Recover the amino acids of this structure.
């Protein structure tokens, strides 16, 4: 038995997708020119799958802050904050996040993934019960796996199903119920009915944790996310998020309306036993947070472009997974067709995400687009003309997929 034998099914699926052209999961850009354009060789590609929602990765203030922090504190922290201490960038960003959201406590992590891993696994102990949405992102599931608490899944975006399960669970002896949902879901771009979830949690004394990775910076009058948009931010116990999307950096954060959340710094293994984010990353996120506060026009442009693209794709007859949002997912019949179309779009200079099972909800095959406030009306027209051409040439693209299958 070889150590890699267990990956043989995965390998044959990857091989099949690779037969269609470029490996969609190993794209290498030779240069990123700005928030909406990259180069592969000399070929310019329009970027429509980066999660760079506010387009701030090339914002001059974010770049300057990042360089300044590197010059001041060096390229890395080389250790955890518990063991090696914090830098003023970490503390300043935590204070700014707490102030911006009106929360009592904010903790910064090295990635968004680690945020959920650390917070969920620590907040739910052996006597507690976790309730999570059936379409939860991998790091929520992994946080639950690391927790000593049992995990119960409820139907996607269904406060009624959550309520049924909370009632069935009944009183938790010596423990609490922690409900985990997302704001906007990363694959379909659909939004949770947050107010209804808040009400169910309040009725049953459950704590509510919302991952706003894809909605922070994008929704709400001050960009705090969907809980703010629905006017219930002060009734949510925990909000997590990432710096890798609208905050144009890398890292993550968890906010809480409970001051006592602070104690968990000394209990969260994925915070304590890993290096803290670099001064450069934290300073860039800090500068991006100021933009979120000061530039509501970024959110407005993003929503306008989302509506433009959504309307255009709908007119072309594409089956879209959710109403307009910066994530627009197009449902495709199967992974071979999706992968062939993805390759065809790449050839035309349009980069979107290919999302195929097992990482997708309902085992769907998707062409997933994520938009940026930096996209212009003309950029969206360019993307739409690519999809219009794809529609016209769909038979050719299908034939390509079939040839690849036949060669199996
Ligand atoms: N939460 C959600 C909902 C995500 O989709 C992701 C990753 N895209 C993360 C957390 C993890 O964020 P990061 O990339 O910062 O690790």
């Amino acid at each position: 038995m070889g150590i890699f034998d267990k990956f043989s099914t995965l390998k044959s699926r990857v091989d099949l997708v690779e037969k269609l052209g470029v490996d969609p999961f190993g794209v290498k850009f030779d240069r990123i020119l700005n928030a909406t354009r990259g180069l592969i060789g000399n070929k310019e590609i329009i970027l429509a799958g980066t999660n760079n929602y506010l387009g701030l990765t090339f914002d001059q203030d974010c770049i300057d802050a990042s360089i300044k922090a590197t010059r001041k504190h060096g390229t890395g922290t080389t250790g955890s904050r518990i063991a090696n201490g914090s830098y003023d960038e970490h503390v300043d960003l935590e204070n700014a996040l707490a102030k911006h959201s009106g929360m009592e406590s904010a903790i910064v992590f090295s990635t968004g993934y680690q945020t959920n891993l650390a917070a969920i696994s620590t907040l739910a102990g052996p006597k507690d019960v976790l309730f999570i949405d059936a379409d939860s992102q991998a790091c929520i599931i992994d946080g639950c796996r690391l927790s000593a608490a049992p995990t119960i899944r409820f139907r996607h975006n269904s406060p009624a199903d959550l309520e049924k399960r909370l009632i069935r669970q009944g009183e938790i002896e010596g423990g609490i119920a922690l409900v985990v949902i997302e704001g906007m879901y990363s694959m379909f771009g659909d939004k949770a009915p947050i107010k209804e979830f808040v009400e169910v949690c309040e009725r049953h004394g459950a704590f509510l944790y919302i991952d706003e990775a894809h909605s922070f910076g994008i929704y709400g009058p001050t960009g705090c996310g969907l809980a703010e948009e629905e006017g219930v931010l002060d009734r949510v116990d925990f909000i997590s998020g990432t710096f890798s999307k609208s905050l144009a950096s890398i890292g993550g954060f968890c906010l809480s309306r409970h001051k006592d959340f602070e104690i968990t710094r000394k209990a969260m293994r994925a915070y304590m036993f890993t290096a803290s984010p670099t001064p450069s990353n934290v300073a860039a996120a800090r500068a991006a947070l100021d933009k979120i506060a000061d530039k509501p026009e970024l959110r407005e442009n993003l929503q306008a472009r989302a509506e433009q693209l959504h309307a255009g794709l709908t007119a072309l007859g594409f089956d879209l997974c959710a109403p307009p949002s910066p994530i627009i997912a197009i449902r495709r019949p199967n992974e071979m067709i999706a992968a062939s179309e993805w390759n065809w779009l790449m050839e035309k200079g349009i980069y979107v995400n290919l999302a195929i099972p097992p990482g997708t909800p309902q085992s769907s095959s998707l062409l997933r687009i994520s938009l940026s406030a930096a996209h212009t009306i003309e950029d969206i027209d360019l993307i739409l003309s690519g999809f219009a051409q794809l529609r016209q040439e769909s038979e050719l693209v299908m034939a390509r997929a079939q040839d690849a299958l036949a060669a199996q």
The chain has two domains: 5-53+296-407, 59-294.
